[in-house]
Amino acid sequence: LTPFVYRRYLDFSMIDSIREMKSMINAQMKRKRMTNNIKLGPGGIREIEFIGQTLQLIRAGREPELRERGIIKVLKLLAKKGYLQKQESKDLISAYWYLRKLENRLQMLADKQTHVLPDDDISQQRICLAMGQPDWDSLIAELVEHQAAVDNVFQNLISTEDEKDDTAPVSALAIFLSDADKEDDTDHSVQQYFEEMGYSQPEEMVKLIVDLHATSQIRHLTGDTARMMFQLIESLIEKIADYPQQVELFERISHILKALAGRKVYISLLHEYPAIQLQMLTLCQASEWFTERLIKYPILLDSLLSTAEAFRNQYDVKHLLELELERVDGYKADSEAADIAELDLEQLMERMRQFKRQTVFTVAMLDVFYAEPVETVSDHLTDLANALLEKILVFSWQAMAARHGEPQCVIDGEVVYPQMSIVAYGKMGGNELGYGSDLDIIFIHNSGGEKQYTNGEKSIDNQQFFARVAQRVIHFLNTRTYSGILYEADTRLRPDGQSGLMVSSISSFEQYQKEKAWTWEHQALIRARFVTGSALIEQEFDRIRGSVLCSVLSDLGGEDKLLQEVVAMREKMRQHLADKSENFDVKQDAGGLVDIEFMTQAGVLIHAEANADCLRHTATLELIKELKDIGWYEAEEAEDIADAYRYFRKLKNWQNLKCEADETNVAQHRDNVKAVWQRLMPEPVEAE
């Protein structure tokens, strides 16, 4: 029965059904002259149950933890999740216990099933005594206080808005949308409506509303859905009048409305919550990026129900991901390898993509509207990628182990169970992910010695096992489903690049880094970071990273040689990757992000041997602080390039979001970066 009770997607349309049921109860009470009923009357027991159950029906399809039978547990959970205010939950629980106590006392009177207050003096005195009240007026006052608290929550959640004055004139727009009384001067009346609303281009708005009304998606709507859609359009138009660029904004909103036309759930959501309408308008005004995502994935409208504070206070991406995956058929937290066969892989991949999309959308809202620092934005996006990779590696390993058994090997006569891990480079490694960043990752295992093969019936050698796990991880990330891909994964930074093994042993990784790696690969190693897998591999990787980076300067023969190699690589990148147009390329042009990264990486390679502290971090901003403390950057320089780095990253993020970014300080930050580059880095040596 569960799928029929709890819908898989948010369903606000059922609020109307709840209202209808409550109206039927009210009508029945009037017909039977049922007064003073503490169960069915306003603010009664039934309204408390209706509040909890309505929110359960709307939410519990996607949040199974809400599928509780006890109303008190439900009300506490709803407050914990922010769907009810904490005070509302307390008031409802207090009223519920009071009403239940009063119900019990009423039923004790004549030992019968009743919820109606008595009207004779003797019974009223008995109830007062049983409820600890001195007189009937005091009891009624206490009861009314509880009922008012309940009914207030009920009215806010379920009841319709105050009915409008039936004598109020119907707007020309409403007449047009309902197709009622169509006349030749309809367009003129609608234009006059827009003029009165304060629209600067009323004739353009008329064209847009006529075009929207004529589309097949809107024209084919019927019944309640059509009524709600027309009311929603009128409500949005009233709100858009307060925004700049009204025509452009309504055009964007029209595309969303057409996408929602066949989905009553989302029309109901917007219809029920005017605050979400405002959020949607503000998002679409700010960026086409938000508009495009709402058109393609209307489920993102649910994100607009959360406030910035709620997201910041409850943000635990691993916990949230776990809750999302628990909704996949067959999934159990900490499941054993045998359970993996029961999982619906396609549903698992889709859930992960939905979770990523929802989280990135929320992060973008915090970024654009709540001035979230660029470091915090990157931390959120990197935490998300970390959590997803951790789960994907576990699933991929379990799937292979279920088929081939666990990898084993014999080292010094003892049987060992080797593991594999994921290491991140680039933006992922530096905790600096932006919107749309790909993942630079490599795979490392710690198998060695003799008899390196799995212990299952279909045994394969360990290297083949690890390669298949890695391929499965890449498949998880790159496969395009209905919701698109999860991430673009780039594994070219592994030893020997594309010609090398997909998964390297920790020993061969160390050998390559010490004997074959180029200087640019050592620069990349500065930002390399263990992500998930074996703790033993993590220890070994950190040891190798530190050892390799501390020896680069002496291996190359001194600071001058190292700086020349860094500059030479930077020149190659400028020639091949920089934007050839006159527009400033935030990343690749002189004075941009890569210049800051290369100067910082050069400083780390020069000072690592004498100052191991500068290897503690992988994030560029943290490395700048360390290099200021050891004298590579002067204090003012460090502040200038750190500010430039934040500014350029913010600019890049907003460009990806298609938001209008303030570019007035670009020249100043570029000049600051160029000045530091000229002081620290030599001129490139021209090829002979």
Notes on the protein architecture:
This protein has 688 residues and is mostly helical. Helices cover 61% and strands 5% of the residues. It is built from 30 helices and eight strands. It has helices at 2-5, 14-31, 45-59, 71-80, 86-110, 121-131, 136-157, 172-178, 186-197, 202-214, 216-219, 223-240, 246-260, 264-272, 274-286, 288-296, 308-314, 317-325, 345-369, 374-404, 426-429, 462-478, 506-515, 519-526, 535-556, 559-577, 593-607, 620-629, 635-656, 666-680, and strands at 407-411, 414-416, 420-425, 439-445, 450-454, 489-490, 503-505, 529-532. The strands form two sheets. Strands 3, 4, 6, 7 and 8 form a five-stranded mixed β-sheet that branches. A hairpin with a 2-residue loop joins β1 (407-411) and β2. The chain starts with a helix and ends in an 8-residue tail after the last helix. Residues 161-168 have low confidence and may be disordered.
Secondary-structure blueprint:
Blueprint: H1 2-5, H2 14-31, H3 45-59, H4 71-80, H5 86-110, H6 121-131, H7 136-157, H8 172-178, H9 186-197, H10 202-214, H11 216-219, H12 223-240, H13 246-260, H14 264-272, H15 274-286, H16 288-296, H17 308-314, H18 317-325, H19 345-369, H20 374-404, E1 407-411, E2 414-416, E3 420-425, H21 426-429, E4 439-445, E5 450-454, H22 462-478, E6 489-490, E7 503-505, H23 506-515, H24 519-526, E8 529-532, H25 535-556, H26 559-577, H27 593-607, H28 620-629, H29 635-656, H30 666-680
Parallel strand pairs: 4-6, 4-7
Antiparallel strand pairs: 1-2, 1-5, 3-4, 3-8
Helix pairs in contact: 2-3, 3-4, 3-7, 4-5, 5-6, 5-7, 8-12, 9-10, 10-13, 12-13, 12-14, 12-15, 13-16, 14-15, 15-16, 19-20, 20-22, 23-25, 24-25, 24-27, 25-27, 26-27, 27-28, 28-29, 29-30
